[in-house]
């Protein structure tokens, strides 16, 4: 099998290649999902249930719409589609007659019976969620294979690479010692940051920020890392900006962060350099990561022209 070249982009992006069959659609195609399960199929799937908003976003970017027959309960992208949940009785999903259900590892770990019942009824289940930046392109390639939109996936990859290079060219010329040092919070009440290899830290570093929590301990195989108040406050004078993702996972306010016990000694708090970043811009593996980079860049270096913002 021939592996396909992807667009060249700076620093973190050296895609982890999934070797996918280049055979025509009438022949067998093979993909491997995020849980190392192999799926072999001979034609694109055409009745898809998407149980992760990032999957829906990427399917839409690939030009699919009618093929998405249902979405998750928290997904607002296709308001005319039925809403289903992985907690539902599997019969509700089966009644929609899907040929593919796209999930992520959190679902298969928490609801393995759902996967078993769907597969017993000849519905293919694929679990996908890239957890590091180098896996992003392979994820899009896999979605392209599953849906027969391989050319569109290659276009996404090329576009992302080009826009990333344009967006980051100026800040990447700034010497590292002159870059802002940042603590990036993921869950305030649990004193969690992001794993050093996570999508959110890719966004931060692409925007020209320096992660002060590179010693954070990743929790299992997630993008979250434990840090703790004592370790954070030990670096209080190093933190130029305090960023926190904001959304369902971390419903926090700037005021709550600034009033947290002990946080008044943090340099960024003293200088009122505390900002919220919408979680969908930094945690979901979509083209929206580019807007996340542009947004974080505007917080780090407001003196730079912000030409990369497209959807805010």
Could you characterize the architecture of this molecule?
It contains twelve helices and 14 strands. The chain is an alpha/beta fold and 312 residues long. It has two domains: 29-157, Rossmann fold (3-Layer(aba) Sandwich); 174-300, 3-Layer(aba) Sandwich (Rossmann fold), CATH 3.40.50.1980. The strands form three sheets. Strands 8, 9, 10, 11, 12, 13 and 14 form a seven-stranded mixed β-sheet that branches. Strands 5-4-3-6-7 form a five-stranded parallel β-sheet, sandwiched between helices. Strand 3 (48-50), helix 1 and strand 4 (68-72) form a beta-alpha-beta unit. Helix 5 (136-147) packs antiparallel against helix 6, helix 6 (150-172) runs parallel beside helix 12 (289-300) and helix 7 packs across helix 12 (289-300). The radius of gyration is 21 Å and the shape is globular.
How do the SSEs run, as a string of H and E? EEEHEEHEHHEHHEEHEEEHEHHEHH
DSSP helical segment count? 12
How confident overall, as mean pLDDT?
89
- Structural class, by secondary structure, is alpha/beta
Report a brief summary of the structure.
By secondary structure, the chain is α/β, with parallel strands linked by helices.
Give the topology, please.
Layout (H helix, E strand, L loop, with lengths): L28 E4 L5 E4 L6 E3 L2 H9 L6 E5 L10 E2 L5 H5 L5 E4 L1 H6 L1 H9 L3 E4 L8 H12 L2 H23 L8 E7 L4 E3 L4 H8 L3 E2 L5 E2 L5 E3 L2 H6 L6 E6 L7 H5 L8 H4 L3 E5 H4 L6 H12 L12
Helix pairs in contact: 5-6, 6-12, 7-12
């Amino acid at each position: 099998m021939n592996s396909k070249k992807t667009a060249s982009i700076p620093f973190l992006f050296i895609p982890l290649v999934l070797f996918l069959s280049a055979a025509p659609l009438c022949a067998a195609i093979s993909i491997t999902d995020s849980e190392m399960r192999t799926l072999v199929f001979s034609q694109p799937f055409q009745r898809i249930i998407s149980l992760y908003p990032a999957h829906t976003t990427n399917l839409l970017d690939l030009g699919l719409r009618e093929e998405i027959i249902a979405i998750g309960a928290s997904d607002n992208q296709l308001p005319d589609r039925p809403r289903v949940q992985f907690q539902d009785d599997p019969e509700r999903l089966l009644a929609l007659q899907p040929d593919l259900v796209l999930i992520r590892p959190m679902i298969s770990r928490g609801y393995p019976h759902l996967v078993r019942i769907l597969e017993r009824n000849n519905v293919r289940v694929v679990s996908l969620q890239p957890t590091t930046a180098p896996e992003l392109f392979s994820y899009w390639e896999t979605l392209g294979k599953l849906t027969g939109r391989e050319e569109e996936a290659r276009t996404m990859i090329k576009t992302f690479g080009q826009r990333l290079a344009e967006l980051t060219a100026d800040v990447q010329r700034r010497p590292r010692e002159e870059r802002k040092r940042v603590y990036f919070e993921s869950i305030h009440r649990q004193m969690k940051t992001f794993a050093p290899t996570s999508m959110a830290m890719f966004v931060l570093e692409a925007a020209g920020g320096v992660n002060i929590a590179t010693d954070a301990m990743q929790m299992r195989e997630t993008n979250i890392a434990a840090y703790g108040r004592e370790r954070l406050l030990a670096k209080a004078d190093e933190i130029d900006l305090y960023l926190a993702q904001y959304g369902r996972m971390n419903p926090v306010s700037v005021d709550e962060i600034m009033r947290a016990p002990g946080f008044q000694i943090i340099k960024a708090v003293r200088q009122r350099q505390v900002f919220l970043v919408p979680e969908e811009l930094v945690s979901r593996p979509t083209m929206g990561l580019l807007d996340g980079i542009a947004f974080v860049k505007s917080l780090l270096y407001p003196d730079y022209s912000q030409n990369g913002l497209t959807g805010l």
